[in-house]
Design brief:
Elements (H helix, E strand, L loop, with lengths): L3 E7 L1 E2 L1 H19 L3 E5 L11 H9 L4 E3 L11 H6 L18 E6 L2 E9 L10 H12 L6 E6 L3 H10 L6 E5 L9 E2 L5 E3 L4 E4 L8 H10 L12 E11 L5 E10 L2
């Protein structure tokens, strides 16, 4: 019996190109990396802003075990009932309790319980409950069932991300960032056994500006007008990481950066 779990994490799916990349490429990625469990951030899958029930169905059918989100999860009101009814579809746990949905879940993979926790940062983001305090409470509850806890920290600020990673070092298997759409090169296993990376990137078009057409993005910067961004309709790249986690201790043994261009 294997003594480790391999977890594949994919960054923000951006628009139709990102959805196509997941639909076409995720199962092959799972096979190639021998991944046991998959977490995908889907908050930008609906034309770049939000997530729809159709997006959720596609992501799960493509091989994901859980879907995390972030600040754009509320864009499509039709997703609210699904946030309540589907435990593996997450919204950040530090939203107020009256917000629909769940911030964490536990999935059973080949007899092994694996927990996912979704949190959102506060620096240059909406002012939510403290992610550090919420993380502490959530991790205490989750560790009653499993030592394998994978955290998606949807945040803008690297200082905040690194601080949370070190705060949770040794208590969770990994803390990896999403939201900026730019894959960083600082993947590492921290001193107490938690894998960390500031941002795992996006699953979306790598041309343009964070997945959007460059013309509109440049004009937004030049004029400071709130112009609508359109997603580049080109083949996407699947960005993320592969974690190798010790089953018994829940500690990470390695973290590998992944960047694969889709057809």
């Amino acid at each position: 019996m294997a003594e480790t779990i391999k977890a594949l994490l994919l960054g923000d799916i951006v628009g139709q190109p990102g959805c196509r990349a997941v639909f076409i490429g995720l199962k092959k990625l799972i096979k190639d990396y021998k991944a046991d469990v998959v977490l995908v951030n889907g908050e930008n899958s609906a034309d770049g802003f939000g997530i729809s029930p159709e997006n959720v169905q596609m992501i799960f059918s493509s091989g994901a075990d859980a879907i995390s989100t972030g600040n754009h999860v509320w864009q499509k009101k039709e997703i609210y009932p699904l946030l309540e009814s589907r435990a593996e579809l997450l919204r950040p746990a530090n939203y107020p309790k009256k917000a629909p949905g769940h911030g964490s879940c536990i999935v059973d993979v080949k007899g092994q319980k694996i927990a996912f926790l979704n949190l959102q940062g506060r620096v240059d983001m909406p002012n939510l409950d403290c992610p550090f305090a919420v993380a502490k409470d959530e991790v205490r509850k989750l560790r009653k069932d499993t030592n394998i806890i994978i955290v998606d920290f949807h945040a803008e600020n690297v200082e905040e991300k690194e601080a949370l990673g070190l705060y949770l070092d040794g208590q969770v298997s990994s803390v990896t960032g999403t939201h900026t759409h730019i894959q960083t090169g600082d993947e590492r296993v921290l001193s107490k056994g938690t894998a960390y990376m500031s941002d795992i990137g996006m699953t979306g078009p790598m041309t343009g500006v964070i997945g959007s057409k460059s013309e509109e993005a440049i004009q937004r910067q030049q004029t400071q007008m709130p112009l609508k961004m359109e997603i580049e309709d080109v083949p996407a790249t699947l960005n993320g990481v592969l974690l190798t986690i010790d089953k018994k201790s829940g500690k990470a043994l390695s973290i590998e950066r992944i960047s694969k261009k889709s057809l």
